[in-house]
Design a protein that fits this description.
Blueprint (H helix, E strand, L loop, with lengths): L1 H13 L5 H17 L2 H16 L9 H46 L4 H4 L3 H43 L1 H22 L6 H21 L1 H6 L8 H20 L1 H12 L1 H14 L3 H46 L18 E8 L9 E8 L4 E5 L6 H7 L8 E6 L2 E2 L5 H7 E4 L10 H6 L7 H10 L3 H6 L17 H15 L3 E5 L7 H15 L3 E5 L11 E6 L2 E6 L1 H7 L2 H14 L9
């Protein structure tokens, strides 16, 4: 465990960069502050001794003011040193946390895009932002306190036995008992609590984001949080864990607080016993010193407890960040190539999702010539979306090769690959920015006129006409909300503006009403003209005119051909077409009486 802590601390300090020395300086100043902070107790003891030595005549206590001022200035000096120490460590802590967030984000940008489809945005924010923030408290406060905590017990133990070893032994006994209570409280079943606690916080954060996104559905159907069982379960599990931990710490915490604050219960009878058989004035002076010094020892024990908690937080933070930093980034070719044309080909491609039991695609081979429209159809889970996601390298294949422009996608320049492909997904993502900025995301250098041309081609003129600020209207928070079909058309305008030679359409009309679907189909004509198109669709009416139709089932190509060829074959596609025709003719009507 100690090795693990040392490794976590050393890894955190690596992110400090040039500010690492500032952290070390802060620790040294904190240690000096801790030692200097003990001297006022000595000064007070000397002042009290001077008073009692001449009592009731204080005219001989000439050094009383001297010791009083010495106590004041050593206390002020200790505070000043501690302030300087915290200034150093805070500056270093903020830079370190910033560098950790930056390193995590830079690594995330290199991960396959499929990584983001399997991780909730709330969970990723928690992993990167909150866990990096956990290290701030360690470096800014707990690490300099640790330096003082290491030095203080040595000096404190020496001071405890300088004046009266018997009273010092009693104070030391309360410190040992407090430490023992703390170990019992943090050990045993509670040893892994912080890890479980962070897991539950992370889970609850992710589920909360998903719940907030689903609030319109909750309101529409007048449901409650209980409808979102995953979110409700996360809240209940977190509450149960926190309650169990609090209850399990009752005895340990009670003993701990009693010990660090209970020195008086031992010092008073000890002082009376010692005074009965010795010098009363000397015993009184020593008693006053230990009565003042014992609470300082209690604060020291408190610092040790908080320090151990901060180290656990740092261990957990680094462990959580490793979940991201440990992910393998997309391999980049040492000599990246450029695509030669707009062709797409799969050559014996097999791919299995992480932790899946069977391949999503199994030995799939097909080709799409430049300018050709190929449709992927088949039952849900057949591998259609997986095949489309492998083209832009959302994931890398397990075996086989995906070719774009005659080159292996793994050997293509990543920017060139992204420029080669335009996507329109069923789950449209619009930024909380203006419509102009949302469309211009496809090509930042586009002029306003070019954006308007893309809007017209994507059949979005009617959308702009009803928006209060037209193209400059903000979408989402503090703006207007678009329907699913309208958002889909804005996404199509984005793809039109990109003008990539390869277009991937993944269920682009899935959430569109009939009116929007008609507009989207017209927009497809502008988007796909003279382009290589890979189209995924459940509505078979949208793929009748495709140059080639691939029927994917259980990760394999069941059959392929044109619409007419597949109908004549009487296979899987023919059955799907018959089912689609029957569903299209189904109407809601009154049941006729018999």
């Amino acid at each position: 465990m100690k090795q693990k802590k040392a490794n976590s601390l050393s890894r955190i300090l690596k992110y400090a960069g040039g500010h690492k020395n500032l952290t070390l300086l802060g620790c040294v100043l904190s240690a000096l502050s801790a030692v200097l902070g003990l001297l006022p107790y000595v000064c007070v003891w000397l002042a009290v001794r001077s008073v009692l030595a001449g009592w009731p005549d204080l005219s001989g206590a000439a050094d009383l003011a001297q010791w009083g001022w010495a106590a004041v200035w050593t206390a002020v000096g200790s505070i000043a040193l501690y302030f300087a120490a915290l200034m150093c460590t805070h500056i270093a802590a903020f830079r370190t946390a910033r560098n950790m967030r930056k390193a995590a984000m830079e690594h995330v940008l290199k991960l396959p895009m499929g990584f983001f489809t399997g991780n909730q945005s709330g969970r990723l924010r928690k992993l990167i932002d909150d866990n990096a923030g956990l290290t701030e408290d360690l470096l800014a406060h707990k690490l300099p306190d640790l330096a003082g905590t290491v030095v203080t017990p040595i000096a404190a133990v020496v001071m405890l036995f300088i004046f009266d070893w018997r009273m010092g032994l009693l104070c030391l006994l309360t410190m040992v008992l407090a430490l023992f209570s703390m170990c019992l409280m943090m050990g045993g079943r509670n040893a892994g609590f912080f890890h479980r606690y962070q897991q539950e916080i992370e889970r609850m954060s992710g589920e909360a984001v998903e719940y907030v996104r689903g609030i319109p559905v909750v309101k529409m159907f007048q449901q409650t949080v209980y409808s979102f069982k995953a979110f409700y379960a996360a809240i209940q599990d977190y509450s149960s864990l926190a309650s169990q931990y609090a209850m399990s710490c009752r005895v340990g915490q009670t003993c701990f607080l009693t010990c660090i604050n209970g020195a008086f219960a031992l010092l008073i009878p000890a002082a009376l016993l010692l005074a009965s058989g010795g010098d009363v004035r000397t015993v009184l002076v020593n008693f006053l010193f230990y009565a003042l010094f014992a609470p300082a020892c209690g604060q020291m024990i408190n610092r040790i407890m908080y320090m151990s908690e901060a180290v656990m937080e740092a261990d957990e933070a680094m462990g959580r960040l490793d979940e991201i930093l440990g992910r393998q980034p997309m391999a980049e070719s040492a000599r990246p190539k450029l695509p030669q044309n707009a062709a797409v080909a799969f050559d014996h491609v097999t791919f299995t999702y992480p932790e899946a039991s069977r391949p999503a695609l199994d030995d799939v081979s097909f080709s799409v010539r430049p300018g050709q429209v190929t449709a992927l159809v088949g039952p849900s889970g057949g591998g259609k979306t997986t095949a489309a996601s492998l083209i832009p390298r959302f994931w890398d294949v397990d075996s086989g090769t995906v070719f774009v422009g005659g080159e292996d996608v793994r050997e293509l320049d990543s920017q060139a690959l992204m420029d080669q492909v335009a996507f329109v997904f069923q789950d449209t993502r619009l930024f909380k920015q203006s419509v102009l900025d949302n469309i211009r995301a496809a090509r930042r250098s586009a002029t306003r006129e070019e954006v308007l041309a893309a809007v017209h081609a994507a059949q979005c003129d009617d959308i702009l006409a009803k928006l209060p600020d037209g193209l400059d209207t903000v979408v989402g928070a503090k703006g207007v909300y678009l329907s699913g079909g309208e958002a889909q058309r804005i996404a199509l305008a984005r793809a039109v503006l990109k003008n990539a030679p390869i277009v991937v359409l993944d269920e682009a009309t899935a959430f569109a009403d009939p009116e929007n679907e008609h507009q989207i189909q017209k927009a497809f004509e502008a988007l796909t003209r003279n382009k290589t198109v890979l189209m995924i669709a459940h509505r078979l009416s949208t793929v009748q005119n495709a140059d080639n139709i691939l029927v994917l089932s259980e990760g394999k190509i069941a059959e392929q051909g044109t619409h007419e060829e597949l109908l004549k074959r009487g296979g899987v596609y023919a059955g799907m077409w018959a089912d689609y025709q029957r569903s299209a003719q189904w109407k809601v009507g009154k049941e006729q009486a018999v």
